[in-house]
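Lab notebook, design round three. We kept the backbone fixed and only want residue identities now. Task for the bench partner: fill in a sequence for the structure below.
Input structure tokens:
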């Protein structure tokens, strides 16, 4: 059976970008057609400056939001990365497989390291080695498909390279996984800065829609989205990224096609109004289910405990085999 793995970092409140780019597909498609594992990747949240209490709170919130988004623990496995030690064990073998040059070439590393330095902070070594842990997350489960947004595609490509290299050196151990991207909204852009992706750790939230934003807040953010000085509505991501982003979001929420939708509008005002309502309606069930689940943290804890048990049982034999393959003496 096809196996699917993906994750989300508890570095902020989940955004519309996370939802349209990844989480919605996990719930609507992936969990129904494959053996799927979805993970709150809390160890990755430690690669940048962090506040322990906040990471803890956001980890639980992310798990709750995954369930609120429709992940069904009867259909898939939902768990927290740090609960399954196999990720860290295998991560070290991935560090022994990758070169420092290929880590330094990662766009996310370059961007986040530059931002960290610009703030006068130092760059954690784990930010550089992040893709090794991500490769371990994926490869530990014999994953075939990794449903992510476009920004993570480069890391999955590196994971493929590492899997192939490991298999070649030490014998067939890992499945070589592939990325799956959504048809539209693979990269939702910040509403205030439509040339940057909408990110959950952005300090300025005016351009970021959180899954838990009240409808009024969503409307205000969409109506204030930056467009351009043209008047006609045309789908042109290169020249007119703000409008293209709104059309992509509308298409993703309504199941339409962004170019075709452009033809249906003759003003930005009308387009924004429809985008705002489409987003509010898309997020409404998530917000409602979240309220119920957040009131029952012991249910969420139980899901995560069972999820971690299942994940551990799936990962352990493959990680043990990898340890043996590289020449480590098995513990008997
Ligand atoms: N703007 C986006 N558009 C489409 N997909 C997106 N994803 C993230 N942002 C967008 C996808 O959501 C999944 C979970 O993201 P993540 O938590 O693993 O990592 P991220 O890409 O680092 O997310 P953020 O929100 O931008 O966090 P920060 O600000 O910390 O970098 C992934 O599949 C991702 O592709």
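Proposed sequence:
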């Amino acid at each position: 059976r096809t196996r699917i793995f993906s994750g989300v970092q508890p570095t902020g409140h989940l955004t519309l970008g996370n939802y349209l780019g990844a989480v919605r597909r996990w719930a609507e498609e992936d969990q129904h057609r494959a053996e799927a594992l979805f993970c709150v990747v809390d160890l990755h949240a430690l690669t940048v400056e962090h506040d322990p209490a906040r990471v803890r709170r956001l980890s639980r919130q992310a798990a709750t939001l995954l369930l609120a988004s429709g992940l069904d623990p009867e259909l898939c496995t939902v768990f927290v990365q740090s609960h399954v030690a196999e990720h860290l064990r295998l991560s070290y073998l991935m560090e022994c497989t990758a070169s420092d040059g290929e880590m330094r070439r990662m766009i996310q590393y370059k961007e986040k390291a530059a931002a960290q330095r610009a703030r006068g902070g130092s760059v954690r070594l784990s930010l550089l080695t992040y893709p090794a842990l991500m490769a371990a997350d994926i490869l530990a489960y014999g994953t075939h498909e990794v449903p992510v947004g476009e920004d993570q595609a480069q890391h999955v490509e590196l994971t493929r390279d590492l899997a192939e290299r490991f298999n070649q050196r030490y014998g067939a151990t890992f499945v070589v996984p592939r990325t799956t991207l959504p048809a539209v909204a693979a990269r939702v852009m910040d509403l205030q800065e439509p040339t940057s992706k909408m990110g959950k750790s952005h300090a300025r939230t005016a351009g970021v829609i959180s899954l838990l934003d009240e409808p009024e807040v969503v409307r205000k953010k969409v109506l204030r989205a930056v467009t351009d000085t043209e008047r006609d509505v045309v789908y042109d991501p290169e020249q007119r990224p703000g409008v293209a982003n709104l059309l992509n979001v509308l298409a993703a929420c309504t199941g339409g096609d962004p170019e075709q939708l452009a033809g249906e509008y003759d003003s930005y005002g009308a387009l924004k109004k429809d985008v705002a309502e489409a987003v509010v309606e898309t997020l409404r069930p998530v917000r409602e289910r979240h309220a119920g689940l957040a009131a029952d943290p012991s249910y969420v804890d139980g899901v995560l405990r069972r999820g971690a048990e299942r994940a551990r049982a799936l990962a352990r034999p493959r990680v043990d085999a990898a340890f043996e393959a590289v020449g480590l003496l098995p513990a008997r």
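Keep this in mind before ordering anything: The longest helix spans residues 297-325.
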